[in-house]
Design brief:
Elements: H1 26-30, H2 37-47, H3 51-67, H4 70-83, H5 89-137, H6 141-146, H7 149-191, H8 193-238, H9 241-249, H10 253-276, H11 279-305, H12 314-335, H13 337-355, E1 377-385, E2 391-400, E3 405-409, H14 416-421, E4 431-436, E5 439-440, H15 446-451, E6 453-456, H16 467-472, H17 480-489, H18 493-497, H19 516-530, E7 534-538, H20 546-560, E8 564-568, H21 572-576, E9 580-585, E10 588-593, H22 595-601, H23 603-625
Parallel strand pairs: 3-8, 3-9, 6-7, 7-8
Antiparallel strand pairs: 1-2, 1-4, 4-5, 9-10
Length: 626
């Protein structure tokens, strides 16, 4: 008779014979993290605030491991009660009830342990996610222009969420399975050392071949996944809106079908091989699992029937069989511990790698908040390069006098946007200095500095909320009268009031429910509401049609009056309105002057005028004449 055993209360993870879980990919092997005391100590810092909860989990695991022995022991005693001459039904009933209460107690403790474990892991995730988000919020603008957004989101969400499985899986699994093995081995030898030796000698014959077949399956699973990725790529390319149109326009339906069919055939063949891999081995293994208890029963029977041990009972033999069966899963999982450990450390390494990125642009040790009665902007021999690469700015010198408007013109890539990014410290100079008044921007309190600057960028961004919520981002305590006035200046008020929900209209993701011009005017209203001392417009009217631009130009002049303003523009009307125009070429200021002066002395400005400004001006004149 082979007793049926419930799974141990503290056991972690499903029992998967030959599964790929226990093997590292080639990429994981190459990127295996370096294990050292510093890394382990850093991980421990996240666990220490919850040390008492961890102690409670550890205590629960000890109790679970001990209680997990009782079903096997009680089952053996039930067998002895049945085959004994006493035939005591009362004793048998007591053993059955005891088994029931032990199992119930083990389950209650298991639920309690899982609850505490889940609470700990979620609290650690909460702490790490807050720390990561706060760190990312303070990263410089150059970080977000250089990093893939998907990678940032993966670190913040998937990687940190994976910590939960490390805490509630790997760490708890190590403790739980070690305790299970230790208590089982002790009880085996306590029951009968000879049967224990037989059982433990059989155990490697059950586990090691399983890993060999699992490795083969893992290789086939990886190949199948690669083919599945190729299938997904073909689907994404040919069945997307743009891809399907391209296929139809070039009548490539048959060719694309044949390519898909060929890859699908390969993927199916590999999957069939993977599912068949080790099938005969599993038949043998299933038989061997049944034979292993028979060997223990044979050894026990040999001792009992041969009269070599009068104290050994059939129940003792049943206990040994049950405990050996109980050992299989925790031993297998402990053999996989190296893989789980490497993957866990790799997860923490990825998180720490992001947290260790230097913030770069921080508040100075002694931040200043000087009064800004005069807001002259002065660039003094400014140089800049992205992370030590080719210089983008090469010795920029200019001054924007207090209350004046200066325009920057130049071809794409000349460095115009980088120049204006220096003022609110989206970037810091590599050499030279940028000053507002008499103070270097690097000496300002960062929040104070940015509160003085209103910026409208070419790539207008609105959050997926209402128009009112997007406007209040500039000034959370603004009165409705201030908001309406800002919208009137930006020439967006009448449009908003014509909407069914008015200011409560949801603009959609990135403001996609609004046109480009409407988004830009909301963005301008947001900058107006901020009421900054310095105004920066980066192609601020580029998305406006000529009618909207004409309506807003006078409003912008009103907004900029008395404010120090720096403008990048491709519109002639904006450029002409500037007190001074600077021409940028390849990271340098090559010419300065008024519109008329530059037309006569600057070949580059004249070229820009002919290719950009005059063409737009002639087009607008032709529309007016029509």
């Amino acid at each position: 008779m082979r007793p049926m055993m419930p799974p141990p209360a503290g056991m972690r993870g499903p029992m998967r014979l030959g599964g790929p879980r226990g093997f590292l990919t080639e990429e994981e092997k190459q990127n295996r993290p370096t294990v050292n005391a510093a890394l382990l100590k850093r991980i421990l810092r996240y666990l220490l605030p919850y040390k008492w909860q961890f102690l409670a989990v550890f205590a629960a695991l000890i109790v679970s491991a001990v209680l997990g022995l009782f079903p096997a022991i009680i089952t053996g005693r039930i067998v002895d009660a049945i085959v004994s001459n006493d035939r005591n039904l009362r004793s048998l009933l007591q053993l059955v009830l005891l088994a029931f209460f032990v199992l119930a107690g083990a389950q209650v403790i298991s639920v309690l342990e899982q609850y505490i474990n889940s609470w700990i892991s979620q609290k650690i995730i909460y702490d790490m996610r807050n720390q990561m988000y706060d760190h990312l919020q303070h990263m410089p603008h150059a970080f977000f222009t250089g990093e893939k957004q998907g990678d940032i989101i993966t670190r913040l969400n998937s990687d940190i969420n994976g910590v939960s499985s490390v805490i509630s899986g790997v760490l708890t699994s190590l403790i739980s399975n070690t305790l299970t093995v230790a208590t089982c081995v002790f009880t085996l030898f306590w029951t009968d050392w000879r049967l224990a030796v037989v059982g433990l000698l059989v155990l490697p014959l059950l586990i090691l071949p399983t890993r060999a077949v699992g490795k083969k399956r893992w290789k086939l699973v990886s190949e199948a996944q690669a083919k599945q990725d190729e299938l997904n790529q073909r689907v994404e390319e040919t069945l997307s809106v743009s891809g399907s149109m391209l296929v139809k326009l070039f009548t490539k339906e048959k060719e694309e079908y044949e390519k898909y069919r060929a890859v699908n055939h390969e993927a199916t063949a590999i999957t069939i091989r993977e599912q068949r891999a080790g099938s005969w081995f599993h038949v043998f293994l299933g038989m061997f699992i049944q034979i292993a208890p028979l060997l223990i029963y044979f050894a026990g029977g040999f001792l009992i029937i041969g009269g070599r041990d009068a104290g050994l009972t059939v129940g003792d033999v049943s206990i040994v069989v049950a405990l050996v069966n109980r050992l299989y899963q925790p031993v297998r999982m402990l053999l996989n511990l190296q893989v789980d450990f490497v993957r866990s450390l790799a997860l923490f390494s990825r998180i720490f790698e992001m947290l260790d990125r230097p913030v770069g642009i921080e508040n100075p040790a002694h931040p200043q908040c000087p009064p800004l009665e005069r807001c002259d902007i002065v660039f003094s021999d400014v140089h800049f390069s992205y992370e030590g690469t080719k210089e983008v700015l090469k010795g920029i010198d200019f001054t924007v006098p207090n209350g004046k408007m200066v325009a920057i013109v130049g071809t794409s890539g000349a460095g115009k946007s980088t120049v204006i990014g220096m003022i609110p410290r989206l970037y810091d100079v590599s050499a030279g200095a940028v000053r507002i008044g008499q103070t270097d921007v690097r000496d300002f309190d960062l929040a104070y500095l940015r509160r003085q600057i209103g910026m409208v960028t070419q790539d207008t961004y609105l959050f997926n909320g209402t128009i009112l919520e997007n406007l209040l981002y500039a000034k959370s305590d603004a009165a409705m009268e201030e908001i309406e006035n800002a919208c009137k200046i930006a020439n967006i008020y009448d449009f908003i009031m014509g909407l069914p929900e008015r200011f409560d209209t949801v603009v959609g993701n990135r403001g996609l429910k609004l046109s480009g011009g409407e988004k830009q005017r909301v963005s301008i209203a947001r900058a107006v509401l901020k009421d900054p001392r310095i105004l920066i417009l980066d192609e601020a009217t580029s998305s406006l049609d000529s009618i909207s631009e004409n309506l807003i130009q006078e409003s912008l002049r009103t907004v900029m009056r008395g404010r120090t303003s720096l403008v990048i523009a491709h519109r002639l009307s904006t450029v002409i309105a500037a007190d001074r125009i600077m021409v940028m070429e390849e990271g340098r200021i090559t010419e300065t002057g008024t519109h008329e002066e530059l037309l006569t002395k600057s070949a580059k400005y004249k070229e820009l005028y002919e290719t950009q400004f005059k063409r737009v001006l002639d087009y607008e004149k032709s529309r007016q004449n029509a």
